[in-house]
């Protein structure tokens, strides 16, 4: 990874150009530029620009683009380099599409180079519908993947950014969706600094993210998009953030309609702008000029916001007087090209997690004549992609992937099995109208692949999909509809059963854990997901993903959804035994660590050295994971503090170094004071989390260093 983020002298030059441009504007012109749909100012040769674009896992909502696996699925790769490669690919397609759109004067929504991604909120509760937009439940993993995704998206050109990233939603935001417009997330200082802020801090300080988006909710009484604590004290004063802040969409309106902290629109826009919100997704900033005229906002505060916004546009090289950029000639032929599709398959292959295998997998084509593929996600394109997605030129569902892989050699039988969430497929039929077909397919098959789970119609953002149950959130962790009955029918057939689980969050699959022969968690694996799943099922590739979330046994094990205390949540604070732990994932091959040591440096950091060997029969990859436990009361369980994915041929071994910074050996007290206690820390080095359940599932214990 190149260390160059951006040329500081260029950055200052762009800021000066922005100041000069803003000085030429009337107040009315200035205020118009703080809306996400900033209109053209022809007399100053300023083009119209819409700040709203999305790139969570590919350029979204603007036609064809590579649809990579959803963010939560990519997090399962535990691969920082891969995340930067994906970010760079998305920026390439973003530039390709932008260059084409500009040729035809298209400046509509979703057509700019300011991408409101990544989502680095912490997936603290499995019910949260938007959790699949995140990188999971761990602040350290989220930080590392978020930083590298931003590096890829913004690029390493010294003169211009390739695209502008935006870390969202700042801060303490993770549901419930149906309460977000008036909800107050109450959080202790300790949890704030220990869990909810670290990823944002890394994105700002390390990745130099260009933008930050505020959240809908209040945090400790302050609406996030107008919070002095968050936007001024922490973001700009403590962290030194120099980019721009955008509101979430129509969030400023919530100040008076939902949160009721001010009386109306004028006070709302004043609260937002005076505390550092520079652009409004929505239309409430149309009141800005009136607010300035009434003395609620100083014009120099408007100027400051505009300088930030136009500096971004100059850094992107998209102003009329901008110098040419290295990205102006990127061809539209880059979009969803064969090269991009191959990268997409590789990302999916790296990200899927094998949760159980009694030896049935990998399948051998020559040993089966008929395969039954059943379930509502077997041929469901929506279960490939998650939300905030683009449009692929080709989708490969699980059914299609298996059919393509086995060709004419194996007969593939298919049944939808049941509706994803309703009690029948055909409205005029009786309940469970496909169950006889399920039984018939199972009876005629040598092995049964059950494709169950969720899609973005059942979990997602409020108002952004058709969840009839809970505004995008899950009401329970159970398989919805009749899916459990379909799984039980498959098991009752006596045939070997593989569960392929497509979902962006954890589900309570205890029955499958007890009765299925194998379980592959595919997440939302992207447009090429079915092809990747087939390659894993048939052993062309080893599964190598690790869980970025905890699979719980039931909802009874976690606190109320509205409780933002971290006590009892995620692997870092839970006391119960997980069904499948964070950091866990099986392989077809086996790996062993040896010669593991740790050397401490004078600056408080440490270097862990270990040798990993592929001791099995397949080429594969695994993730070395380093956890640190502060041996004091009221501190978290062992926490992930370093990781490295390594690919090895069978029989190959490599020696690797992983660096633990000084901050790996400390904790935040109740007042959020940082306390380093290197001599009171235990370090665990292994291929999974150092908990009893991981040891039970893998048969391996972590190396302990004190």
Concise synopsis of the structure shown:
With 706 residues, the protein is of the alpha/beta class. β15 (591-600) and β16 form a beta hairpin.
Descriptive key words:
single chain, 706 residues, alpha/beta, TIM Barrel, Rossmann fold, Immunoglobulin-like, 3 domains, 6-stranded mixed β-sheet, 4-stranded antiparallel β-sheet, 23 strands, 17% strand
Walkthrough of the structure:
The chain is α/β, with parallel strands linked by helices. The chain folds into three domains: 8-325, Glycoside hydrolase, family 3, N-terminal domain (TIM Barrel, Alpha-Beta Barrel); 338-549, Rossmann fold (3-Layer(aba) Sandwich); 591-705, Immunoglobulins (Immunoglobulin-like, Sandwich), CATH 2.60.40. β13 (497-502), α18 (510-515) and β14 form a beta-alpha-beta unit. The longest helix is centred in the N-terminal third of the chain and has 24 residues, at 80-103.
